[in-house]
Design brief:
By secondary structure, the chain is mainly alpha-helical. Helix content is 67%, strand content 4%. α3 runs parallel beside α11 and α6 packs antiparallel against α12. The strands form two sheets. A three-stranded antiparallel β-sheet has the order 1-4-5. The protein starts with a strand and ends in an 8-residue tail after the last helix.
């Protein structure tokens, strides 16, 4: 086989690598899906793993703080509300993967393609701006969180050695650079279809650190920790001022919204599923598994975390040193967080990579730099293909997002802002509007009215969450001292 070939000629590439006898003795339908692309191999398990990897992320670590701001009544209620809304709208979005029908219609490979097929017009550009802006924000947020977790390992050992009141200030920046170096390597994975193994590992890690945080919280409560909690959360005049209460409440809502954000990659996940069963049915089951599992963890971590720390719950209960001992278990949990975020970064970055590369390939189809794959033999791994444009572009992207993360290393505010900015357009507005168009729901009918009411209510929630996060971010920028760990 030759050492290079055009990467956009998928059928030719497959024929080159497939023994002729296998094509002679088999039906071509065994090798390609209805759209001419290689057979998809995703299953309910792999889709659920992708969702859990995307959903149970760094957001779970801030839920004890969020419940502390909202209290025993509003906190769990908002968690369940976001859970229901996310699952409901994800089922609507799953039906839009194919158009015009959800079972036999034409495939749409990205969120923008789905919006283009069902709505069209300027909404396609607005969707792209919201989706890819959110994906970029998430990768920046994960770079921040992963570095904080690794720093927490070093601080945990420092506190164990020198005492809990020692000044163990360690810079995040070297660890952001290490995280970026790992992502530069992993970003050379060509596409989403080859990420299943990474998502499964990341999902296991997310269960591990969530379970550790939950177990430590339970142990703290069982040990008789004397903390102050209330039905309404932090108290005005005691814990915070009136204005701080309002802004923190808004920010907490944004944090919870971020904790459920995976609509941005739902279509890309659904595009990995095999076609033996209608993809929309499998995706709905995967969404049910993912959202139910994460909601259970969220309620347990948020509520028991609040019971353990009360109104003084840290913004991140594993890296904010709500726990100091056993230090080795804290270290292990933070390592699990870092490993999980390594995989989660790729789940959110691959759609960005695919979008830019497909656009460039279409714009410059004759460019060898963009469209040629170069084969090299990697010891113990077989033959691997390098595309120079993919190498340069993806490396540049990782470096730029890491630099932005170094400039704004603020955990809770970044999470809240990303959640607020993406929740309404991507999780609520577009799925509802596309469902109305696909199902041809009559205007002003009962179903049309309550869907619109849900959409407008979520818009208000997103706006107030964004306001709270922006206020908190502005406050942190003013007081930020570089070269010290952000908790």
């Amino acid at each position: 086989m030759t050492g290079e070939f055009p990467k956009n000629n998928a059928a030719a590439m497959y024929v080159e690598q497939t023994p002729p006898e296998s094509l002679e003795n088999g039906d071509p339908k065994n090798f390609y899906d209805d759209d001419g692309r290689e057979k998809r191999t995703g299953t309910l398990m792999t889709a659920s793993a992708h969702i859990i990897t995307a959903v149970i992320g760094s957001g779970v670590l801030s839920l004890a703080w969020a419940i502390a701001q909202l209290g025993w009544v509003a906190g769990p209620a908002i968690l369940f509300a976001f859970s229901f809304i996310t699952y409901f709208t994800s089922t609507l979005l799953a039906d839009c993967y194919r158009s015009p029908g959800p079972v036999t219609g034409k495939r749409n490979y990205t969120y923008m393609d789905v919006v283009r097929s069902h709505l069209g017009g300027i909404k396609v550009q607005l969707c792209g701006l919201a989706q890819y802006g959110n994906l970029i924000g998430v990768t920046i947020g994960y770079t921040i969180t992963a570095s904080i977790s690794i720093v927490a390992v070093k601080r945990s050992n420092c506190f164990h050695k020198h005492g809990h009141h020692a000044k163990c200030n360690i810079s995040n920046y070297p660890f952001m650079a290490i995280f970026a170096a790992i992502q530069i390597v992993l970003s050379q994975i060509p596409n989403f279809h080859e990420l299943s193994w990474l998502s499964i590992v990341a999902a296991v890690m997310s269960f591990a650190y969530s379970s550790i945080g939950l177990g430590l919280s339970i142990a703290r409560v069982a040990g008789g920790a004397h903390v102050k909690t209330s039905l309404t959360g932090v108290e005005v005049g005691v814990d915070v001022s009136g204005s701080e209460k309002v802004w923190r409440t808004f920010q907490a809502i944004g944090d919870i919204a971020f904790a459920y954000a995976y609509s941005t990659v739902l279509i890309e996940i659904q595009d990995t599923l095999k076609s033996t069963k209608p993809e929309n049915k499998v995706m709905k089951k995967a969404s049910g598994v993912g959202v139910t599992t994460t909601t259970l963890f969220y309620v347990l971590c948020g509520c028991i975390g609040y019971a353990a720390f009360g109104n003084n719950a840290p913004g991140n209960f594993l890296t904010g040193f709500g726990f100091f001992e056993p230090f080795w278990l804290i270290d292990f949990a933070n390592i699990c967080i870092a490993i999980h975020l390594i995989g989660a970064y790729q789940v959110f970055a691959q759609p960005i990579f695919g979008f830019i590369e497909s656009r460039c390939s279409s714009r410059w189809p004759d460019s060898k730099f963009i469209n040629t794959e170069h084969g090299i033999n990697v010891p113990f791994c077989g033959r691997y293909y390098i595309n120079f444009f993919r190498l340069v572009w993806r490396t540049t992207y990782v470096i730029v997002t890491s630099v932005i993360a170094m400039i704004f290393p603020f955990f809770n505010e970044i999470l809240g802002l990303i959640g607020a900015a993406s929740f309404y357009p991507l999780t609520v507005y577009f799925p509802i509007e596309m469902h109305i168009a696909q199902a041809k729901i009559p205007k002003y009918s009962f179903r049309w009215i309550w869907l619109k009411v849900l959409s407008w209510a979520c818009l208000v929630v997103s706006l107030v969450a964004a306001a709270g996060s922006i206020q908190g971010l502005a406050k942190d920028v003013k007081t930020y001292k570089p070269f010290k760990t952000q908790e």
